[in-house]
Amino acid sequence: MSPNTFSQIVLRERPVADILPDTFESKTKEFGELQVGKSQALVQVTYLSLDPAMRGWIKDERSYLPPVKIGEVMRAGGLGVVVSVGEGSKFQKGDLVFGMFGWTEYAVADDKSMQKISPPPGSTSMDFLNALGIPGMTAYFGLHDVGQLKAGETLVVSGAAGAVGALVCQLGKRAGARVVGIAGTADKCAWLEDDLGVDKALNYKSPTFREDFAKAVGYLDVYFDNVGGEILDLALSRLNQNARIVLCGGISAYNDPQPKGLSGYLTLITQRAKMQGFIVFDYAEQYPVAVKEIAAGLADGSIKSKFHIVEGLGNAPSALPMLFSGANVGKLVVKVSNEASMSLKL
Questions:
Q1: Quick one: which H or E segment has residue 182?
Q2: Residue 79 phi/psi, 5° resolution?
Q3: What number of other Cβ atoms are within 10 A of residue 269's Cβ?
Q4: What torsion, rounded to 10 degrees, do the Cα atoms 249, 273, 178, 127 define?
Q5: What are phi and psi of 66, to 5 degrees?
Q6: Alpha-carbon distances, residue 201 vs 15, 40, 50, 93, 148 (angstroms)
């Protein structure tokens, strides 16, 4: 790639089921096409977040955000370094920022769409893609606002080795709950128990999983659901009275063109339970509350942040399906560059 060009990855076609190699395609762009206007900045992207929600963003369906258009840069949150600024911009060259830059090496962004990153003690800038970013906010408000978790209760978390699930487990322990995590490999279960301190981790691929679930859980008070499907049905069979089910995601069905419905929902009636979905962006004004508590956990070591880093923007399309096969442990990110390496006059 010459100094006068950069790469972007755009949506080529909408997959019916699994994300395929030709779902996305790479485009070469000229720097001359980037025009920095008033109250804007040019950003060199350093890291991009890969999230299960991306599967929904490329569906042509009504949702909380409009679908990514064919030929449009794939939507993604990320970190970057300000390379140059337009008239009246509140940013300065060299500022580290977070924004929805998308799958691109460089982006021009409005000031209002970005925030300057200042890592608190005990954290790094990378934590703004995980514990101090959208995964952390999702875990915090899903658990505390929707789940209403109380000390002494039993919390069960599916997808517990993923970015959101791992944070929910740790926030649950901080809140004084008994925490049972569900993951898909023995290594992930060992990590949950040994490193994150969950009371019990269960491998859903084990032939004795259902029996193990009943023995370890007994009856649950809060189920934080990241996967949906059969595991959600199983959780519905083990509800305490007034249990709360937090519907964060349903990754088991994201690639299924005809997902199956639930069969165990009638226990919601008999146990006076609640099942509620939520979207983290609805809590944006309250983010500082969550950031303060999670930052304190990072500083005292009670919250740990783990990353699975894939090198190079060009590997983003092949890395995204890892989220649906369970190949990653912790927060999946793509490293795009180290730091701003050039000064551009646009």
A1: strand 178-183
A2: -105, 155
A3: 8
A4: 30
A5: -65, 150
A6: 33, 47, 25, 46, 22
Give pLDDT < 50 ranges for the chain: 1-2, 342-346
Domain ranges of the chain: 5-122+306-335, 134-300
Residue 340's pLDDT is 52
Is residue 209 a contact partner of residue 200, using CB atoms and an 8 Å limit? no
CATH code for the part of the protein at 134-300: 3.40.50.720
Predicted pLDDT of residue 252: 79
Helices 163-174 & 287-300, crossing angle to 10 degrees? 80
CA max distance for the chain: 66
Query: 24 — phi, psi (to 5°)?
Result: -120, 160
**Residue 128 CB-density burial (10 A; 0-12 exposed, 13-18 middle, 19+ buried):** buried
What is d(CA 106, CA 343) in angstroms, rounded to the nearest whole number? 12
Q: Which of 169, 199, 203 lies closest to 184 in space, CA to CA?
A: 203
- Of 50, 16, 24, 12, nearest to 324 (Cα)? 50
What is d(CA 266, CA 247) in angstroms, rounded to the nearest whole number?
A: 17
CATH of 5-122+306-335, one of 3.90.180.10, 3.30.420.40, 1.20.1560.10, 3.20.20.220: 3.90.180.10
Amino acid symbol at 23: T
pLDDT for the residue numbered 3: 65
pLDDT of residue 294: 96
Phi, psi at 178, each rounded to 5°: -90, 125
Residue 229 main-chain phi, psi, to 5 deg: 65, -145
Distances (CA, A) of 338 to 109, 298, 334: 19, 24, 11
Residues 6+ apart with CB under 8 A from 117: 79, 96, 97, 98, 125, 128
Query: Residues for the chain: how many in total?
Result: 346
Tokens 């969550």 map to which residue? Answer: 290
Q: pLDDT tens for residues 76-105? A: 999 999 999 999 999 999 999 999 999 999
Question: What tokens appear for 183 in the block?
Answer: 């993951």
Same fold for the domain at 5-122+306-335 and the one at 134-300? no
